[in-house]
Amino acid sequence: MPSRKPKAIPLADERPEGEPAPTRRRRSEAQQQKNEETRMRLLNAAARVIGKYGYAGCSIARVAARAKVAHGTFYLHFKSQQDLFDQLLPALGAEMLEVIGKAVRDSKSLIELEQRGLTANFDYLVQHPYLHRVTSEAELYAPVAYRQYFEELAKPYKKSLRRSMAAQSQPAFSEEQLDAVISMLLGARYYLLTRFCVQGNSLKPLTKELTETYLRFVAEGLGVKLDLPLAIAATAQAAEVIPLAPTRKRKAAGK
Known about the structure:
This protein has helices at about 30-55, 60-65, 80-105, 110-125, 130-140, 145-165, 175-195, 210-220, 235-240, and strands spanning about 200, 200-205, 240-245. By secondary structure, the protein is mainly alpha-helical. The model is unreliable at about 10-15 and about 230-255 (pLDDT under 50).
């Protein structure tokens, strides 16, 4: 008897002509929201781990444990430890920018814009002290994220500064000059934080006197009138000093 020719088995990507490709099931909005919440929980856990141990001590195991998720769950959201580092600072910066943006909205002058922005910026950092170490070490461990973070900080700042200067009929800067001005102001804020607010294992608020000094520096440097009564919120001095990383309590003798 003649042998029967075996029936060809179609490959996975072969289908009858004209038949549409199978569609993947889209995740429900609830599932998408749950995934994003888990991703943000991992990012926030990583930020706190870095605040305590630095990037060098930020292992995937520590992040997963801090976020209270299974070790394998990490890889559903990040390809690697470096992928986590590259996403971390931009994500944290976006949250801070949202807070600052609400604070400076409807500012009536350039100095009011600076006062509101500076206060909101430092208040946020005091409430999230781990962000300082995440930022300062990122230049070495996540240089792309570090550059992206400062670029994202500069964009809305540039827009607000240009609008405020135009409203006060201030001489316009070229784009390059305005970029330089913003870099100098952001640099001043960063070094005020490092020099006067970071003390040992704690991060304290900027004092009223230093806030006034910064605003006077900006006003004189940009040639604008210091028309704000400088009623700096009393909470700037009375705010709680928050540790950058939790300190271990010493055991009492005999226990």
